[in-house]
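Narrative summary of target 7.
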Amino acid sequence: MSQKQCPGLHPLANGAYAWLAPQSSWGWSNAGLIVDGEASLLVDTLYDLELTSEMLQKMRDAEPRAKAIDTLVNTHANGDHCHGNELVTGAEIIASTASAAEMNELPPEAMAALMEAAKGMGGVGEYFLHCFGQFRFDGIRHTPPTRTFDGKLNLRVGDKPVHLIEVGPAHTRGDVLVHSPSDRVVFTGDILFIEGTPVMWQGPVQNWIKACLLIEDMDVDLIVPGHGPITDKHGVARVRQYLQYVRDQARSRYDAGLSAFEAAKDIELAEYSAWSDPERIAVNVDSLYREFSGAEAATDILELFSQMAQLAGFGAAGPGAAGSGATDSGAADNTPGGPGSTSSQE
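Modeled conformation, tokenized:
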């Protein structure tokens, strides 16, 4: 599936829709809608209230059964998939137990405080503004799930079966797939980034690879990623192959004694260099190194963003510059997830 897809609402089947963001980079996430009879299920909200409000209005205009959403599923904890929850009034909000716990560590006000501080944070602050400056985080009320599950949860939307399948920890701690077999559609959340570089905040990588293989084995025609255009199984395989490639490249450099950031700078991305946000290799290698070593302590999120800022050409100035060994504790406290966390908002 390589044809250009316009942003906005896309009918997928009889009573299934995808909402596609205008780009696949930081914060620009997709969502989905499944309806049958008088029932409706929304897959994810968006990064801020304005974006979510626009999406919900377009859904209501196209589909009368979307006027009152019965069920909202958050595929994972990152804010670009749950910050708009408060606008889905009256819905049961479902997420994995792990995601629900992680959401409580990533309140919207943390992003609002970070964006306020970014101008004084040098290169990494410039990078934050580049990634997230177009979103509005003020005034968002944290609205957590009202129902959680572990493993699998089978739902019905009217007469349609809908299967929630927990495949995390992978991208985050509790990633969930939403499979509608009647529509031959699966919504993957951030297990899939299409035409954009995946970012592995959590791992282990093998869980993510297994999730891709699970999708590849599904009897589906259309696959809606968390970011990027609607894809098919070839697109899933490409994400899996990226993960396998980076894992193998990182392992050889780990065994050779390179640091994680040295390895990230040294790995040749080759065919994957055309994907957006290739600097995420820094996070991916860092997570892989933690996995290889068995380390439990997570790298500070500000340090990881400093590394990505350097790779993206934003320089090393500012608190937490990669390799400096120092981080400004006040700035770190305002980052998503707080000091020592590897969770972010993508």
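The first strand starts at residue 8 and ends at 13.
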